[in-house]
Amino acid sequence: MRKFNYSLALLITGLAIMPQLWAADKREAKTDKLIKNISERVRYLASDELEGRGVETEGINKAADYIAEHFEEIGLRVDSYNGSPFQPFQISTDVKLGEPSDNYLTIIGPAGTEEPSVLSELTMGFEFNPLAIGASGTFDAEVVFVGYGIEAEDLNYNEYADVDVKGKVVIVVRKEPQQSNPESVFDGLKSSRHATFQAKVSNAYQKGAAAVVMVNDAGEAERYLAGLKHALSQYSAQLKSLTNTFEEIQTPSDSEVDKHKQALRQAANNISDTVSELNGDGDAILDFDEAGSPSNRKSMPVYFVRRAVIEPLVKSAFGKTLGEIEIEVDKTMTPFVGHLEGWRIKGGASLLQEKANVKNVIGVMEGRGSLKDETVIVGAHYDHLGYGGRGSLAPWTMDIHNGADDNSSGTTGMMEIASLVAAADSKNRRRVVFIAFSAEERGLIGSSFYVNNPLFNLSNTVAMINLDMIGRLTDNKLIITGTGTSDIWPDLIDRANETPQFAITQQPEGTGPSDHQSFYLKDIPVLHLFTGLHEFYHRPSDDVEIVNFQGMAKVVQFGAEITMHLQTTETRPNFKKAEKKRNVANTGGVRPYFGSIPDYADSVEGLPLNGVSANGPADKAGIKQKDIIIGINEYKIGGIEDFDSALRKFKAGDKISVTVLRARKKLVLQLTLGEPR
């Protein structure tokens, strides 16, 4: 019997497994490098230096340059637009007030027997303010008091039922009746949708009012003063905390002393301002932008006016004060409305649309061989909310919203997929176009602009992969939307998931609140990678500390594998319609289904459409992409708010007439509303 050489066997075994170990070490090293790259990129894109990448900030331009430099470093083409990687376009941002002389309000009273008409020119900023939810325009019109300005036929309460307001100024009281009654038909002690500024303004617009004058309700003063008292206690506590903190510093530096003095001055000013307000009458008028976002409407100015200004008009016309009328309506739940005989209001409003120059950032990896003329898109939006305001879920702050997850994570993921794909090589491959979209937070505007102005023919664009908020992988759960838009997706997802073993939630629909929707509406198969919403979403707290870099690396590797398969597979993905089915429980089931997709990039008056849902009511009625809805039955549609308000006046199964503009021609189409979805 031959003696077994254990030493030799061990040597041979070791030599056999060494390549495997080296390969494993190499993979681990690559993963470590990927995690390091991801961390560095997210930290930069979500840094204060980039100012939250708001479309009005210089920080977003720094982000664009950073992305473009990366594309160039890894060998992508960055000369597609006059030698530049930037696809420029312009968007509407917000509105601002024009010249003070163009914003005015004058009360003209009835002529008495011994004196001329009462003429009162109001002071802007003290007695009245124009509101951003209104529009520019001038008027000189009769006045109608319409109570709370509510039209709620389903609740048997309609303050427009017996009064004609066309061409007139309407005076509207804030909130709604029975605010302190838990049994109120509106929504108990909570404010219903009928109490919103937008609902009140939409009702007036749809009835043809010339302008809206809004005043506080009686209870607002009480609520306002209570808020001031709370604020005063907070400011006082802050002042005490500042003092205590500074006293703990044994030897403060000059800069610390200066910073402390500045903080003390600010705290003292806050306290002084609050005390002054507490000594007032509690009837605070809203600032220009406090009632909501601007509308597409091009007519009907809206103002907020002190009750003390409107009180004499109401008392003269009805012999009752506003407070007495509110009490009466609370008791009877009967609308109190009427013309203010002899009174007129003359006014003007000038609202100027602000514009911003923005840009998509595009890098191209050219194709080869028989597949070279076909295109795969990998995209992510790089904009966020800047210093807050519109879109923020912490609107009371002006802190930088860094958007580490939304969407520094997705932008970084797209950049790292670009690195991995660029490092691979194949003799026969599709072109891959990497796009960082701007103005997604304003309504998918950047991706919408691209699909309407594509770099490469969309008919040869075979798929789009979108990454949005991939930085919060928890319990290895990944959400993938668009899985029903092509037959190839299920098998391809399973293949790519062999290593990461994600717990995947597949959502078949191609629509949704991110940039993949723009491509789906052009009949392109899409996949959208997403790790889920969280409590930091659209708040200043969405910062790098919440990001799971290791989890991001797994998502990036997963997305890269899908991209490289799409790049090289001979079989072109087919396209399928896959529509989203909304949960009625989440929408309240109060609005019937129409089946349209708004175009937020267009500020034309009405509701411009980016598309319609396949086989939905709008589709069946013949409504098309690029149509502009301007009317539903007798209701005027000046913006999305009016569209929503009008639809809520109908129910599923109702047949309605929809007036649209199509290539500047007016068409009236018949539509049957569907069940809420």
SSE arrangement:
Elements: H1 6-45, H2 59-73, E1 86-97, E2 104-108, E3 119-121, E4 128-130, E5 137-145, E6 151-152, E7 157-158, E8 169-173, H3 197-206, E9 211-215, H4 218-247, H5 254-278, E10 302-305, H6 307-318, H7 322-332, E11 338-349, E12 351-365, E13 375-381, H8 404-423, E14 431-437, H9 445-452, E15 461-467, E16 477-481, H10 489-496, E17 503-507, H11 516-520, E18 526-530, H12 549-568, H13 584-587, E19 596-598, E20 607-612, H14 617-621, E21 628-632, E22 635-636, H15 640-647, E23 655-662, E24 665-672
Parallel strand pairs: 5-8, 8-9, 9-10, 13-14, 13-15, 15-18, 16-17
Antiparallel strand pairs: 1-12, 2-3, 2-11, 4-10, 5-11, 6-7, 12-14, 16-18, 19-20, 20-21, 21-22, 21-23, 23-24
Helix pairs in contact: 1-8, 1-12, 3-15, 4-5, 8-12
